[in-house]
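Morning. Coffee machine broken again, so started the prediction first thing and wrote up yesterday's gels while waiting. Chain of 160 residues, entered below exactly as on the submission form.
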Amino acid sequence: MAKTCADVDWPTTKDGSKNDDRFTIPQVTNEDGTRDMRYNLFEKPNFCKSEQLTTSGSNEYEATSAPHAPGVYQISTTDGPGRPTTKYTGMSGDLSTRIDQHGRGESNISEQMNEASGQGMNTRVQYSETDSRAEARGQEMFLLDQHNFDWNDRNNGGRD
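Came back before lunch.
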């Protein structure tokens, strides 16, 4: 089980009394511009078995069974029986809706997904539900620090 924001000592509100997403969602950098390393304290999410999003040569989207809950997800490509290559890591307050947006062409990575399909690759998704958007953000930051994913263009300073 992944650690929660409380486990890594992230504040949940600005003043302790009202919700404010700027403080409940962990940021990549501190106020002084240094990289906030607390997200390294999160554990790797427990991903479900991957599900097909698109099939080689087709831009037709196959709906997933992702829950309407916060969590992190990874989209990968594969050119057949080979091992999938993770291309994108994301987080959402509603996994089902966000993954559907990617599949229906309503997102920032739809072009890459269509290009992969045109090159004969399948796209797949795996996801892990979290207790909150803040925990999903922390896990996303943890994952982005592990690798430089091809389709992520922000907060992607990982090691290869």
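The chain has one domain: 21-144. Going to sketch it on the whiteboard this afternoon.
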